[in-house]
Amino acid sequence: MEFGRRTLLTGLGGLVLAGGMTSVAGNSLAAGQTQPGGRFEQVGGDHGWKPHKLDPKECAEVAYLGYWHKDYGCGYGAFYAIIGLMAEKYGAPYNQFPFAMLEANKGGISDWGTICGALYGGVSTFSLFWGRKEVRPMANDLFRWYETAKLPVFDPGEKALGFKGSLPQSESDSVLCHISVSKWCYVNKIEAESKQRSERCGRLTADVAAKTAEILNAKIDAGKDYKGVFPVQKSVSYCGECHQTKGNEANWAKGTMDCTPCHSGAKGTMNKFKDHP
Amino acid sequence: MEFGRRTLLTGLGGLVLAGGMTSVAGNSLAAGQTQPGGRFEQVGGDHGWKPHKLDPKECAEVAYLGYWHKDYGCGYGAFYAIIGLMAEKYGAPYNQFPFAMLEANKGGISDWGTICGALYGGVSTFSLFWGRKEVRPMANDLFRWYETAKLPVFDPGEKALGFKGSLPQSESDSVLCHISVSKWCYVNKIEAESKQRSERCGRLTADVAAKTAEILNAKIDAGKDYKGVFPVQKSVSYCGECHQTKGNEANWAKGTMDCTPCHSGAKGTMNKFKDHP
């Protein structure tokens, strides 16, 4: 049993016996109880789970298996590799999480191609342990690494579940599934609906889980001093001088994604609805 | 206490008494137990929570309050409005969820401007109840509505927590926070870092929660027959004829987002790094 930082009983669920109901001290909610602490109260306190260091290599392997488990995909694989491994090693509260909800992340959230589902699976684990001010540099490190890293790196060898053999690597320049996947497919002439592409995303899920664990471990070591290591993108600094500066009449841009994929007049963003082959 | 569809004990947490540990039948995991069912096992079974109908108007009001609660933002507001309300009305397993993790969604996931955090908050609730085949038409309805609706609609009147008074509405054409927010700010000449913009996102969170509840209610009524009502976007059908068709050499595109904001040669996607004022 794990003791969180803020409460004795962290995230334990309802206490029920066949013949009746028993309660213990703390703010654990019994089954049948609703929200006795009031609206917006949370069992164990907000961000109240205790973080544990994990082996990035083990996380990568579990994430890859999670990706293929019932085809739940990237978000499930990356999230289970962190919180599921804590559940396997430490029990509650980690083993109380309804993991399959992360299936929503597949294909950039229900196949819409928005954020890479593995990235959401990784970054959302941080928010179980820390509030946004502490999470932001961790998220920035994970996301900026993803934009610039040549992925996938992980190779399951003979244990590959979708496609055996090496796969090409490419930089996505973007945390969006649509750009990350489509660019990899376009550059390498591999169909988006192919086993190679599925395998690529499975391996990338392993890479994201390993990076998430590295950042988690570094944060546990550094505590509030964790500052992050990846610098802000040049494009975001440049564009942000006007578009993200308070008091500027052009201060209308929200986001930290690299601006270049969509705002540099690249071939892909020209008019594809006119004179397009 | 709620009984799920697949197990007698759904999502109940650990069973612990001051003097020892007690277990009951079912696959509930006691504190201290890890994952006795094996890797990837889940308390209550995958997608094992029981869905309940909610009043969309009540959800909107709670979502708006959740958005402002400790500044947790859009994802927290939308998610709590669904699962938190079920917790308030029905107790476990809903009240076991570590709600504050949804703070990760703020600003399109840790201020990166990817998916609208409210949309993720809404769609991820569906995956607590159903697998992806049933979730997909629900997600499509929520996301396509968001692309085309003039938002925000919700108006808290005198109870406004960020900015009182009416706000302009606009269509986002996109489920991405960056486009949704930036377009609203650009069109209406309102700074991204302003109280009006925060208020806009708070009201939009209310709108997304209400729509999520409408879809949830319709799904509960229709069961497996739920087909969805929003047609696929013309751009996705048109581009998908080549870019999302198996066997086509140009089958490299992943996603269901409207293609036009980034692939129609719009002014915003021209080269902003050269001869830009």
Layout: helices, strands, pairs:
The structure is a homodimer of 277-residue chains.
Chain A: E1 16-17, E2 20-21, H1 56-68, H2 74-90, H3 117-126, H4 132-148, H5 177-188, H6 195-222, H7 234-243, H8 260-263
Antiparallel strand pairs in A: 1-2
Describe this structure in words.
- 2 copies of one chain form a homodimer.
- Chain A has 277 residues and is mostly helical.
- Chain A has a domain of 179 residues.
- In chain A, 40% of the residues lie in helices and 1% in strands.
- Chain A is built from 8 helices and 2 strands.
- In chain A, strands 1-2 form a two-stranded antiparallel ribbon.
- In chain A, helix 4 packs across helix 6.
- Chain A is globular and about 60 Å long.
- The N terminus of chain A is likely disordered.
- Chains A, B: This is Split-Soret cytochrome c.
- Chains A, B: InterPro entries: CGCAxxGCC_motif (IPR010181), Multihaem_cyt_sf (IPR036280), TAT_signal (IPR006311).
Q: Which key features would you list for this structure?
A:
mainly alpha; TAT_signal (chains A, B); 277 residues; 2 strands; two-stranded antiparallel sheet; Multihaem_cyt_sf (chains A, B); disordered N terminus; globular; CGCAxxGCC_motif (chains A, B); homodimer; 40% helix; Split-Soret cytochrome c (chains A, B)
